[in-house]
Design goal:
Strand content: over 45%
Number of strands: 11
Structural class: mainly beta
Oligomer: single chain
Shape: globular
Helix content: under 10%
Largest sheet: 11 strands, mixed, barrel
Strand order of the largest sheet: 1-2-3-4-5-6-7-8-9-10-11
Order of helices and strands: HEEEEEEEEEEE
Radius of gyration: 23 Å
Length: about 230
């Protein structure tokens, strides 16, 4: 009988096929909460600033997953264009190991793109240079955000619907894990609430899709609260 040799041959073929074409990419999901506290306003003349503190809670909102400190000095080129130079410090706690610290220098361009459909459309382009304490390379990354907000009641900015999307693309590989190409995508839907003065709060859901390479994708479901203190 040739049945057994045929079965063995088929089993070997299946094994070789499996090794040549690994299983579908793995997706890891997490529930998180991000709190963003930002102060911003003029310094003198056309010189402006912003300073930001952002703790992020992960692992089912059970611990601090990341802490971000970021600030920048800007120059208002016109009523619709502002250019910034900034710096950020990012701490990522590691269980059972040394925390990962990342330093970033960045250049940022804010543009007001108009008021279509009774709302406000704007963009933010940020170029980052990134250093980490677990490697020696400098990573270059660009981030592009498109944002749209529209008052829920005409002639009132008390509450506005808010959506934005921000794409991250890395320019080079690094010895600490960055890979050139698509890095992540953030998509937000929620509301902007007017506070006393020109301050605002943004509350909603943020979906973060991260390419962790080697066939792994991370999806974070984030409850996002941002407070902007303007003066």
């Amino acid at each position: 009988m040739r049945t057994r040799p045929r079965i063995a041959a088929r089993a070997l073929a299946v094994s070789l096929f499996t090794m040549a074409f690994p299983a579908a990419a793995e997706t890891i999901q997490d529930e998180q909460a991000w709190l963003n506290l930002t102060a911003m306003g003029p310094i003198a003349g056309k010189v402006v600033y912003f300073a930001e503190l952002q703790p992020r809670f992960g692992d089912g909102v059970s611990r601090v997953d990341q802490l971000l400190l970021r600030g920048a000095i800007g120059w208002k080129l016109s009523s619709t264009v502002t250019l910034y130079q900034g710096f950020a410090h990012v701490e990522t706690p590691q269980r059972g190991g040394r925390d990962i610290n990342e330093e970033r220098s960045f250049q940022q361009l804010n543009l007001a793109l108009g008021k279509p459909w009774g709302g406000e459309l704007s963009s933010r382009t940020r170029l980052e240079q990134r250093w980490r304490n677990d490697g020696g390379d400098v990573g270059w990354r660009v981030r592009e955000m498109l944002r749209y907000e529209k008052p829920l009641r005409p002639a009132s900015d008390a509450v506005s619907a808010l959506v934005y999307a921000e794409a991250f693309v890395a320019f080079n590989d690094t010895d600490w894990g960055a890979r050139s190409g698509f890095d992540q995508l953030r998509s937000f839907v929620g509301v902007e609430v007017g506070l006393p003065g020109a301050s605002t709060a943004e509350i909603g859901y943020l979906n973060q899709v991260i390419d962790q390479t080697r066939g792994r994708t991370r999806v974070n479901h984030v409850a996002s609260v941002s407070l902007f203190f303007r003066h």
